Inverse folding.
């Protein structure tokens, strides 16, 4: 069974002290109604993003060592999917039905 390193990131948290920030983060993480379900997972040089709210959860490759053509393609393709999804999320309603230019 492989070993993984898993991180959970909060963009910004306001607290009086580092201890207070850590306690606030722990409260957020333990809240059953929390939407904090996205994790970065690392294994031997590869990095994945997993959102446990997705049904089913699918690891997205954020970085893969360039050791094989398959890994290079997976890293390139998943990066493009993330970029395209972000464009569609920010597009005006109905824009996805026409031509979308990716820059």
């Amino acid at each position: 069974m492989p070993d993984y390193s898993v991180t959970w990131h909060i963009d910004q948290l306001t607290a009086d002290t580092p201890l207070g920030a850590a306690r606030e983060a722990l409260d957020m993480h333990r809240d059953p109604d929390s939407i904090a379900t996205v994790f970065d997972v690392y294994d031997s040089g590869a990095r994945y993003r997993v959102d446990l709210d997705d049904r089913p959860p699918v690891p997205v490759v954020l970085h893969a060592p360039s050791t094989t053509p398959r890994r290079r393609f997976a890293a390139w393709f998943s990066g493009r999917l993330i970029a395209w999804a972000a464009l569609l999320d920010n597009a005006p309603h109905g824009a996805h039905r026409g031509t979308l230019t990716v820059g």
Summary: The radius of gyration is 17 Å.
